[in-house]
Design a protein that fits this description.
Bound molecules: fe (ii) ion
CATH topology: Metallo-beta-lactamase, Chain A
Number of domains: 1
Order of helices and strands: EEEEEHEEEEEEEEHEEHHHH
CATH superfamily: Ribonuclease Z/Hydroxyacylglutathione hydrolase-like
Number of strands: 15
Strand order of the largest sheet: 1-2-3-4-5-6-7
Strand content: 25-35%
Structural class: alpha/beta
Distance between the termini: 13 Å
Radius of gyration: 17 Å
């Protein structure tokens, strides 16, 4: 089975009434989040990497009960562990109502206020990086921004299902309206996407320092989105199909050997 070897819990905020954890796969910068209303017990997992249940402390997830799993979007640069985690734990998978995946999921949509594991989670439809992309505002405090707003950057739109027009609307008509104090936790950090090594930010910092948010016109934004990006991830179309359920992981492994050993 696929076993990502390099993962690290970078951040934990916890008290009697709250737990919020960020896990980062260090070689790719992919982030997974865990939160719930008690330090242990029922929890929500967002954007789990493949085989993520191994990383639930202290061993095998015995002290966490995963009730809900959310993929902010259909990932194009790594394999999602959402379906595997749901089948192992009995958790429900939540995704945006427009998500084109073959598995069952509970549809969520813009403006919905969900009570998940004792915490309020507001759903923001934030298309642009992908049409089905959602961001999650947890407890009016943490914005899990997926690959829409990154730290000092934004998610690329050239991986097959993106739209510069939609991302422009998402950033300038929706996300910049959030209060400065809201903390930002993206789905990717590190050199591949952001200009810094920081693991979190705030809306206030990003409004002032994120280069993409300083652009005044759509034409300037379009230029930013179409110039100077690194090469596309290897086999991103294959990852999308696996994550959609169109191709089984084993079949993908036969097609591309490195899918099996940790590229995703
Ligand atoms: Fe993505």
């Amino acid at each position: 089975m696929y076993r990502p070897a390099i993962i690290k819990e970078n951040l934990q905020i916890s008290d009697r009434n709250f737990v919020f954890r960020q896990y980062v796969r260090k070689d790719t910068g992919c982030c997974t989040y865990l939160f719930g209303a008690t330090p242990f017990g029922d929890c929500v997992i967002v954007d789990p990497l493949m085989d993520f249940e191994r990383f639930l402390p202290p061993s095998g997830g015995k002290e966490y009960h995963v009730k809900h799993v959310i993929d902010t979007h259909i990932h194009a640069d790594h394999l999602s562990g959402a379906r595997e985690l749901c089948s192992l734990t009995g958790a429900k998978l939540l995704m945006h109502e427009s998500s084109q995946v073959s598995c069952e999921f509970e549809p969520i949509g813009d403006g919905m206020n969900l009570n998940l594991c004792g915490l309020n989670v507001k759903v923001l439809h934030t298309p642009g990086h992908a049409t089905e992309h959602v961001s999650l505002l947890v407890d009016d405090r943490f914005l899990l921004s997926g690959d829409s707003l990154l730290i000092r950057d934004v998610g690329r739109t050239d991986l097959g299902r993106g739209s510069n027009e939609q991302l422009y609307q998402t950033l300038f008509k929706k996300l910049v309206l959030l209060e400065d104090k809201i903390e930002v936790y993206p789905a990717h950090i590190g050199a591949k996407h952001s200009l810094t090594g920081e693991q979190s930010s705030t809306m206030g910092i990003e409004k002032h320092l994120n280069p993409a948010l300083q652009l005044k016109t759509f034409n300037e934004f379009l230029q930013y989105m179409t110039e100077g990006w690194p090469p596309k991830p290897n086999n991103y179309e294959l990852y999308i199909k696996v994550n959609q359920g169109q191709i089984r992981l084993e079949e993908a492994q036969r097609l591309v050997q490195h899918v099996a050993v940790g590229e995703a």
